[in-house]
Amino acid sequence: MAQWIFRLKGCLGAKVYSEVPDGGWGWIVAVAFFLVEVFTYGVLKSFGIFLKDLMSDFGESNSRVSWIISICVFVMTFTAPLSSVLSNRFGFQPVVMFGGFLISLGTISTAFTSSINQMYLTIGIVTGRCLFLSVGLGYCLTFLPTVTILSQYFSRRRSVVTAMASTGESFAIFAFAPAFTALKNCIGWRYTMVVIGTLQGIIIICGALLRPIVIKPKTSPTRTEQKITCSLPEEQMQGSVSSGDSGVQSLDELERDLKSGKEQGEVEPLKIIPKKQDISSRNKLLDLTVLKEGSFLCYSAFGLFATLGFFAPQLYVVELSASLGTERDKAAYMLSTMAIAEIFGRLSIGWVLNWGRIRKIFVLLGCVSLMCLVLVFFTIVNGFWGLVVCCVLYGFLLGNIASTHIPMLAEDDVVGIQRMPLAVGVYVCIQSFAGLAGPPLGGVLVDVTQNYRAAFYSCAAGMGLGAVFLGFVHPAKTGHLCSRRDNRQNNPIVEQVSKDKTEEFLEMDKQVIKS
């Protein structure tokens, strides 16, 4: 048994590289992420085929049944910080495997519920009849860790690989919608849920494949590198000028070490004391300090408002098309058109970002701005083909945005790859409030105005606000957004004082060596 465990640990243990591999085991992780997308978001977006069955069996309205998905999405996104904490504490593999178990168990248990009220109540209390808490929490524990570790395995190809792997969601809609519909007609929706939950157990296997990555640069130290150099590391010159504390040995200690080194015939290397800030950041399970960064706050505000624009077309485009005189059979093809365009959008944005000629944050800003215009066009066009064009554009841009907005956290314009595992949970948690409020807000506007276009107006407004905040991300990161005049005037003085101290240190060092 012990030998088997040792072999398993060797096969699924950490992968050590001298640099970011841009491939290697990362391709296996990409396949795992594709399957996680298939059995999480793919299943979630295909849940609409069960709405009429739930309404018929439970005697409930469309709005009350729709709240199941809204609450499930809210639980999934609101508990994102918990996913970050558990991943940083226990690692990606056990967290994703446990999340896959919760998803499978929750979906199977849903088949045995007897009322909508039980589904609402068991969001927070597990009664054994319906575990939508398991489903929502399980989605959170699987998606975020998988996309985070995938970003760590790739650097140059990160954008294109993430975009390709994220197409699992779109392919699942094509495959699952007709397949589950046919299966439901044969064995009923309850047994179909059992089959879906069993298939979702594949996520547990995917979690086991998420081997952590360790980067150990190859070094070949020489004696000249081990001895004292006459230049200070740049990091150590960031100490307090007034106190003279630069983080290295004082001049008296250095002179004493040099004299003792001459007597012993060997000079000991300089001992650099690591910064306390770096040590404390490594030990944090949840990095809330990102909330102090203007770039992250602006990016989170973009995610909050832009999420409002992600729900209306899928929910109301069929009804909007029918209200304009299109037959319902033809109107149903609107969703298929969106899904096809979304696949091409996810793939194309990966190649564009991998091209590297334009800053990635600006590419995302362009996509969000165009999305706002497309949502406005939904309220202007009339007829079947006008809506088809809008659906193609919307699906394409949705694929662009959906596959990049979370991996964009790894870029230096936002938080960077080192802090992404700690910040992604906070970002998705902020998004959760828009995910919960978006569908009911659109429903209220439609009920008040008796016009399905009203939901598209609210989405366009939210997407427009998101574009404004996204435009502030880069200026906030570079300091041009809220820099103070006093700081600009004091920086040259600090740099001059640091330069004088460096020159004085080097001059005294040379004199000590000559003596």
Please provide a written account of the structure.
The protein has helices at residues 2-12, 26-39, 41-45, 51-58, 62-78, 80-90, 92-110, 116-121, 132-153, 158-165, 168-187, 189-199, 202-208, 223-226, 251-264, 276-283, 294-306, 312-323, 328-331, 333-355, 360-378, 384-402, 420-449, 453-471, 473-478, 485-514, and strands at 15-17, 213-215. By secondary structure, the protein is mostly helical. Helix 7 (92-110) packs antiparallel against helix 9 (132-153) and helix 11 (168-187) runs antiparallel to helix 12 (189-199). This is Monocarboxylate transporter 7. InterPro entries: MCT7 (IPR030766), MFS (IPR011701), MFS_dom (IPR020846), MFS_trans_sf (IPR036259), Proton-linked_MCT (IPR050327). The chain crosses the membrane at residues 25-44, 64-83, 95-113, 119-147, 159-183, 189-210, 296-316, 331-349, 361-378, 384-402, 422-442, 454-475.
In short:
With 515 residues, the protein is mostly helical. It contains 26 helices and 2 strands. Helix content is 70%, strand content 1%.
Spell out the key features of this protein:
mainly alpha, two-stranded parallel sheet, 26 helices, MCT7, Proton-linked_MCT, Monocarboxylate transporter 7, cell membrane
